[in-house]
Fold:
Amino acid sequence: GAVVSQHPSWVICKSGTSVKIECRSLDFQATTMFWYRQFPKQSLMLMATSNEGSKATYEQGVEKDKFLINHASLTLSTLTVTSAHPEDSSFYICSARAWGWGISQYFGPGTRLTVT
Amino acid sequence: GESVGLHLPTLSVQEGDNSIINCAYSNSASDYFIWYKQESGKGPQFIIDIRSNMDKRQGQRVTVLLNKTVKHLSLQIAATQPGDSAVYFCAENYGQNFVFGPGTRLSVLP
Structure:
């Protein structure tokens, strides 16, 4: 089946530093990947849609200069949280689009970011 | 639009009982639906899907029912086990859009 990985699975960083999270589709090519964040006991919130070879599309309210997304290849998208603050602490999940009967999304295992 | 940050409703069931998780979807043009399971600290996991030309689809211990008349989707889990404890999300697909429901937390009681 379709497998999506994320790295790192857990990261702690100091306030003001930047953190990069990688999302890879391991056994399929994904022209479109998605980045979500999730707060405890809440649903997934879509941050941006990442298209290979083009600029990401950000959801309303998401700062594109703070959450830099790069989709350099058909199997890799990265999310960089720049100048991180404690309020950026969250669970970040990526997914990759795949085609079956309709559009499916396969999710990575998530990255827990803690900003101290 | 996409799911917003809402506190999740919870469904509690006794181990061994059947669970029914419901979802109301938004767009009558949606033609494909998926149920995901998300365990604590993990990403969502694909469980089962169904096309709009179907009313029912069965998997291993899970059944998805689709009622297009009232735009309602349900996930039935037979003989619920402790390992089924998780948050369950439905998702609908229409065209290029893929939209999640708010999710339901399933808690299995011993």
About this structure: Chain A has a mean pLDDT of 90. The CA atoms of residues 48 and 58 of chain A lie 4 Å apart.
